[in-house]
Amino acid sequence: MSINQMILRNMRKNLKNYYLYVFALVFSVGLYFSFVTLQYDPGVDNVETSAKMAAAIRTAAIMLVVIVTVFLVYANSIFIKRRGKEIGLFQLIGMTKGRIFRVLTIENLIIYISSMLIGIFVGFSFSKLIQMVLFKTTGITEVASLNFSAAALLQTVIVFFVIFGVIMLTNWIFIKGQSILSLFRATSKTEGQIRNISILEIIMGLLGLVLIIAGYYVSSKLFDGDFSVMNELLFAMAFILGAVILGTYLFYKGSIRFVANLLRKRKKGYLNINDVMSLSSIMFRMKSNSLLLTIITTVSALAIGLSSLSYISYYSAEKTSKQNIPDHFSLADEQNAKQFEQELKESGFDFYQKEFKVLQANVVTKEILVKQQSGAAFDPSEMVLPIISDQALNEMNAAPDEAIFTGYSKVLASVISFDKEGLIQIEGKEKVIDQDYLGLENDYILPYSYSDGGLPTVVVDQTTFASLQEDIDEEVQDEPLTYFGFNLEDPSNLSEATDLFQSLSYNDDEGRSSQYEAFLQQKENMGLVMFIVGFLGLTFLITSGCILYFKQMNESEEERPNYTVLRKLGFTEADLSRGVRGKQLVNFGIPLIVGLLHGYFAVRSGWFFFGTEFYTPMLIVMGIYTILYSIFGGLSIVYYKKVIREAL
Amino acid sequence: MNVLEASKIQKSYGNKFMKQDVLMGIDVSIERGEFISIMGASGSGKTTLLNVLSSIDRVSGGSIKIDGQEMTKKREKQLAEFRKRHLGFIFQEYNLLDTLTVKENILLPLSIAKVSKEEAIMAFDSLAEELGIDEIQNKYPNEISGGQKQRTSAARAFIHNPSIIFADEPTGALDSKSASNLLNKLSDLNARRKATIAMVTHDPVAASYSGRVIFIKDGRIYTQLNKGTESRQSFLKDIMKTQGVLGGVQYEH
After folding, report:
1. Is A4 a member of any domain?
2. Cβ contacts of B87 on chain A, cutoff 8 Å
3. What is the C-alpha to C-alpha distance for residues B59 and B50, in angstroms, rounded to an integer?
4. A18 in a domain, yes or no?
5. A569/B97 Cβ within 8 A
6. Residue A129: domain span
């Protein structure tokens, strides 16, 4: 029989083993290709923010390659281990390792190329769907067209041949490092010797927990103003990342086995079937699994964190735009305002109007600053802040020597925070007015264009305002002095009113802003980020779910003899299945719960940079993640049941 | 009184056109407290007989009664239930769970039977002493020798005082010293606990420890030998003589 014949026969015989590998390949190629197609699509290129978008998509593509490589190398490693016996047999009949490697490479190449073709086809069909999703989330009303891109094809082919090289390299290392005997035992030997729990492990487990908790603690303090210098902040972030990842690893390596061991010790050797199926089996493998579980947990946490953050910003687009632009429309020029008022009336909109004067003045806040910011770009002890009279507002009232701050952006507040009360000075051109600072309110009154992108507005008494108006410092009057706000009585007409506003194009008006416009803008920007992150998150999820599933498949094959024994002893299929359910609850549940926790703390530390809503969007993301994850757990249970049924 | 009564057991593999008969009408009965061996050449059907008797495999015809209950009509779930209460197993490849310690492996059958923990541990202690596995009770199977593994396996078979214990080549993978050690323990337990044991073996020395040997040839019972009051040595000679007559390939002229 020639080598070629042997290769073909081998492939036919191994089809059952291959399907897992083929699936992994088709999936990865399809995913990657559809993503790259998107990158090269002229439709996407035409999107307004194309430079930003292209860069974001390219970064995402690189991350995809990394994940896909890890995934394929793992799938291949399971696959080649299953064939250890066969490789041993080839060696036994006198084939050299180089020859075996050649046979494997040709075999792999055939599989690889055919799966790639399928994958590209699947990816091509899939990219249309992705494109439609993309345009839907960003709110771009462009028809999604299906363009086959040669550049995308080329890139996909190159990337996957590089990955092929990596896989072959790992195969070569595997074949090279094995003797005939060890190959025969490849499937049974993987776990190594089982040892009893050592003190070291207990310490390791505890250390892991301590590290994780420390990481969480620091993350919750991250933007509370304790770390105000940029270097400190970076250091703290690095510490959190390192502590949590290392802690997770140690936790898996030590704690879980330790806790399981405590439970087991208490049974004094009298284990029931559920313990046998879950507890002992998990303990048996946890040590060698801890690295894989750490990777999966970290990846899941990353995916959950990122998707939550981007969803938070998407979800709170409306609120954010309301914060940035408190009134539906605003203008600074009196002429323009009059005209717009007229137009609104003519078009039959019910609305109400606000009008007040805004001054800019230097405010000395030295005494109410919580902490001195030494590394910042400007000195916060003196800031130019917009000042308005309390007469402009119904909600607030200030005595002649009192001032209230209102509408301070949370992002800025995390860097520069104020005390609850104290003394401030408002500097006019000649005089300096001392004021009692009464605290910070949450009402947003002026749009971003007046408040320098989120600085608080100072509300003072009318008399103070009047005297300040007399003594105005011309040098700091960068922003318009008047403010006209318009609000519709019925917000459902906002879209049409915005059309009217836009058609009048007050582009030369410094105070021009439209809430709805900003909302759409925000949605478009965040929709893109959310799309990319969501795509990556989904990929992370599916690959990590698949890796766990493959792993469980492998484990169930390894445990098949155990199931045979148990069934001979008289345990029924139902008994064993119940045990397996418990085991899978732990195997999938622990990385999920730890991942969710990590994700939660990551999101909590910095969510206010992204939006105004926290729990709802985060819980939605986490819920979806949990459901998708459970599907993989369910699939693995189905597989286990099949193995158990066939065991006797 | 008979623990096991099997009559006209038939077992064949394959379909209507390609049928291969492995067992062709075998009658066996085993009395309570008996220690019997089933011997035969490779391919004679002795392991199939054991599998069928122990309800792991199904018969094609005939009936098997254990403790007066008909086994051939039972459903899979009932069989599992029966196995866990009334049968014990010792296998050639030990079949211990790698993930459990020696003690946990041995106590496994009791946990299904819902015996209280105190009773279970008492049962374990007395059995562990008899089989000499006291010191290794907290070790894992891959840390102990083959002989110790097989004694563990034996302990697991005895722990729940089953009606009958089936042993499939229990000494097959052991060196001669561990083998005789195990067989001595088995016959001790047989005598002391009145445990019924049915053992398949091709080793005449192993068979000589039992009270009766059934020889199987080509799916039928060839002959039976009773030890009676003989010494083990002379019984061994008888077994070897019978094996000599029975064994080997027959040339047809």
Report:
1. yes
2. 570
3. 11
4. yes
5. no
6. 1-189
